[in-house]
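Hey, I was hoping to borrow your eyes for a little while. For a while now I've been wondering how a particular protein folds. The fold is given in discrete form, as structure tokens running alongside the sequence. Could you read through the record and tell me how the tokens relate to the sequence? Take your time with it, there's no hurry, and the full record follows here:
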Amino acid sequence: MLEIYLVRHGQTLFNVKKKIQGWCDSPLTTQGILQAQALGIALKDIDFQGIYSSTSERAIDTALLIKGNRKIPFQSMKGLKEINFGNLEGESEAILTDIVQMVSDGFENGESKEIVANRMLDSFNQIKEKHHSGKVLVVAHGGCIISVIEKIDPEAAKKIFKSKGIDNCSVSIITYDNEWRIQSVNQTKYRDQGLRVLQQKSQ
């Protein structure tokens, strides 16, 4: 069985400023760096067969911070990028009055939820061809994570929509054994465990 640890990148400057990121990018904040380092501490004993991220800098930086000095193969993949919000890239999140409907319909000069879910699933299938079993780490983005989870298991996605979405450096676990299955969504326990360790070290 293949087990994917699907992670959202750490907090970024645009997250703090409440701006739409999509295909544009902004750097990790100090807190975002700590979140990624913390997740790396919490997951240090897991024998990942590979680490993958989107080609966006915020995801690559998060993945490499989690990886640390471990000798694990790393690769970035365009198919793991965030939703392309088209003309809304870089704008205030306040204009997204009905994000669920807008993502479903798609964005002018951008993408729809279906397009994003399909390219995410295609990326998962490419990873599956390399790793038939074991565990891999995948670092992506909130919108594309929700989209692929909803495609695989709409009921699991409802739990996300009822909450505030996907947290920075949260872990959702997806498995493949003849079919893709959602095992858990938006777990922050690993990140928070690592943050406690970092806090203790700083005291």
